[in-house]
């Protein structure tokens, strides 16, 4: 990194807690620390348990068959390492807009600029993907309502929620996520009863569906490998924990606890729910005409089960979009505080919410409504592919930034860390190789391949924007006559 890129790496974010110090309230006029540990965990669950599980799982099951469960375990292990890298930096310096700030401080100005804007771009794509399927779920009850109308309604509702205080937002997302968690646990329990005992007119299915339709690896190891692409999209959102650090009441206690708990909980929910589904229904008969969970329980004929599950999957999509809009508003706020975004994005309303960032992100996300009107049925796959390549950029930046963070603070300070990246630096290189492999796999999937063109173009746009910004900063002010 050149000297030029290193200029200005000191934090300009007024909400930053003193480096290495005790938990401190946010400075006056900045974001407010109103999120408790339960809020943080549910916000992360809300971001990660959405369309990736309830809708996207159909395509990943089609690729891997029953071995999709192994793919989730592998992907989950990698995500855990990424989260530990982020958690180490969040423990040391708990700030809002974590990705951008850490890259800015430990790597350089362009790294901070790129990391922040790319994360925002990532969650714009994720939010659009969530909105894209809202209309499909609503059509379960109201088949004549256009999907873009449903998307527009929920866009307005979620935007209003994000303009209230962070504590109110945290409560809203907590209960939204609770609905999903309780429903998934109940679904796993009900599924287990069906598998081993049967329910009503449905006799027990046993677990033979896991190998009777082509084996555990019906499409070979290659099928499982390509399914990792969809799996990694599904895990996107766990990193929201890092964004909440600037508004957590006790980040040095809540962030490590949330990271350790949320990853294994998501693994249990994903693997458990899909495992039960695959036991009940042959993997090669799971279609993509809606949520596979709803379709399966509808086919089994359990009264009311499909309708209830549809409420859950709709809640899941809205909750994930809610988490995405929350994080995007905070990221734009952090970028504005660094001088990497227009100043108006650093404005807060009287509730302490980054109103300008939320409204700007919501306005851009509204493109999903337009796309649902123009190309209904195709928006989800397009936005999922873009979200994944942006997510890979984010995760790569986190892992490399953590390595630079270790070098910057020195061995003595590393020893004082209360939450460390395990097996550093070997684990860092394992994650980087794995992420590179995911990008290679995307090239073999037609629905994801075009994102490999979008990614470099997006990087180029950000680089040009950064160069233009730095050149403008160096331009001397006009001399008054």
Features:
disordered N terminus, single chain, 481 residues, mainly alpha
Rounded mean pLDDT score: 78
Oligomer: single chain
Distance between the termini: 40 Å
Largest sheet composition: none
Instruction: Give me the CATH superfamily.
Output: Amino acid/polyamine transporter I
The helix/strand class is mainly alpha
CATH class: Mainly Alpha
* Count of alpha and pi helical runs: 20
CATH topology: Amino acid/polyamine transporter I
Percent range for β-strand residues: under 5%
Number of strands: 0
Q: How many structural domains in the coordinates? A: 1
Helix and strand sequence: HHHHHHHHHHHHHHHHHHHH
CATH architecture: Up-down Bundle
**Helical proportion?**
55-70%
Shape: globular
Describe, in plain words, how this protein is organized in 3D:
This protein is mainly alpha-helical and 481 residues long. The chain is built from 20 helices and no strands. It has one domain: Amino acid/polyamine transporter I (Up-down Bundle). The chain has helices at 3-6, 37-48, 51-54, 57-64, 68-92, 98-106, 109-138, 147-161, 166-196, 220-235, 240-243, 251-280, 292-300, 305-338, 355-365, 367-374, 379-415, 426-442, 446-449, 451-474. Helix 5 (68-92) packs antiparallel against helix 12 (251-280). The radius of gyration is 22 Å and the shape is globular. Residues 1-29 have low confidence and may be disordered.
């Amino acid at each position: 990194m050149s000297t030029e890129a290193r200029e200005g790496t000191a934090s300009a974010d007024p909400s930053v807690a003193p480096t290495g110090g005790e938990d401190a309230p946010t400075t006056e006029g900045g974001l407010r620390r109103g999120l408790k540990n339960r809020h943080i965990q549910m916000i992360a669950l809300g971001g990660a348990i959405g369309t990736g599980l309830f809708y996207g799982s159909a395509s990943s099951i089609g690729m891997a068959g029953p071995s999709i469960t192994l793919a989730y375990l592998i992907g989950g292990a990698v995500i855990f390492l990424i989260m530990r890298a982020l958690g180490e930096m969040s423990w040391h310096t708990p700030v809002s807009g974590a990705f951008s700030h850490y890259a800015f401080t430990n790597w350089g100005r362009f790294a901070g600029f790129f990391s922040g804007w790319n994360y925002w771009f990532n969650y714009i794509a994720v939010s659009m993907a969530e909105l894209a399927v809202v209309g499909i779920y609503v059509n379960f009850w109201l088949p004549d309502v256009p999907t873009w109308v449903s998307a527009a309604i929920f866009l307005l509702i979620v935007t209003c929620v994000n303009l209230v205080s962070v504590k109110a937002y945290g409560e809203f997302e907590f209960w939204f996520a609770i609905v999903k968690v309780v429903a998934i646990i109940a679904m796993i329990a009900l599924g287990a009863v069906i598998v081993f005992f049967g329910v009503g007119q449905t006799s027990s299915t046993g677990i033979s569906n896991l190998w009777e339709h082509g084996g555990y690896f019906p499409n070979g190891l290659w099928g499982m490998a390509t399914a990792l692409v969809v799996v990694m999209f599904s895990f996107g959102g766990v990193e929201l924990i890092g964004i909440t650090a600037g508004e957590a009441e006790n980040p040095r206690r809540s962030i490590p606890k949330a990271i350790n708990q949320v990853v294994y909980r998501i693994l249990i929910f994903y693997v458990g729910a899909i495992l039960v589904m695959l036991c009940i229904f042959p993997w090669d008969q799971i279609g993509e005409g809606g949520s596979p969970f709803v379709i399966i329980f509808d086919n089994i004929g359990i009264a009311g089960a499909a309708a209830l599950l549809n409420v859950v999957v709709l809640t899941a999509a809205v909750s994930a979009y809610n988490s995405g809009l929350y994080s995007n508003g905070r990221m734009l706020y952090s970028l504005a505080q660094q001088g990497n975004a227009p100043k108006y994005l650093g404005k807060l309303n009287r509730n302490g919410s980054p109103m300008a960032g939320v409204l700007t992100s919501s306005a851009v996300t509204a493109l999903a409504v337009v796309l649902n009107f123009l190309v209904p049925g195709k928006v989800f796959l397009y936005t999922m592919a873009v979200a994944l390549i942006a997510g890979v950029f984010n995760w790569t930046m986190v892992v490399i930034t953590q390595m630079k963070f270790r070098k910057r603070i020195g061995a003595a300070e590393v020893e004082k860390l209360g939450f460390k990246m395990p097996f550093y630096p070997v684990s860092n290189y394992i994650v980087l190789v794995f992420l590179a492999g995911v990008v290679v796999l995307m090239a073999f999937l037609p629905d994801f391949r075009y994102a490999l063109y979008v990614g470099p173009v997006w990087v180029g746009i950000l680089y040009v924007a950064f160069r233009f910004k730095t050149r403008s900063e160096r331009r001397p002010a006009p001399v008054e006559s």
